[in-house]
Amino acid sequence: FAEKLKDVMEYHNFALTNYYGVDAVDYEATLTEALEQAKTVRPMITDVTEQIHQHIKNNENVLFEGAQGA
């Protein structure tokens, strides 16, 4: 995660500083904050494949929504 974040931030910080003339966003501060927030989100993330298959097997409706990329 840290390496991917670094790559993305380098790209966006280039645009921020060179095209918009604003300060770059601090990588270390962003990484620290993201890892802290991950502690809150992590318990809510799970593989729901088995539950989905069970609902389909029971002929229940299943709604898939992926607009947020999750």
Helical content class: 55-70%
* Number of H/I helices: 3
Mean pLDDT reading = 93
**Shape label:** elongated
The tally of beta strands, per DSSP, is 0
N- and C-termini, Cα separation: 16 Å
Derived from helix and strand composition plus strand pairing, the structural class reads: mainly alpha
Please write the string of helix (H) and strand (E) elements: HHH
Q: What count of structural domains?
A: 1
Biggest pleated-sheet summary:
none
Question: Which range does the strand content fall in?
Answer: under 5%
- Pick out the low-confidence regions: none
Rounded radius of gyration (Å) = 19 Å
Describe the structure.
There is one protein chain. By secondary structure, the chain is an all-alpha fold. The protein has one domain. The protein has three helices and no strands. It has helices at residues 2-18, 27-41, 49-57. The chain starts with a helix and ends in a 13-residue tail after the last helix. The mean pLDDT is 93.
What are the SSEs and their pairings?
Layout: H1 2-18, H2 27-41, H3 49-57
Task: Provide keyphrases for this structure.
70 residues; mainly alpha
Short description:
The protein contains three helices and no strands.
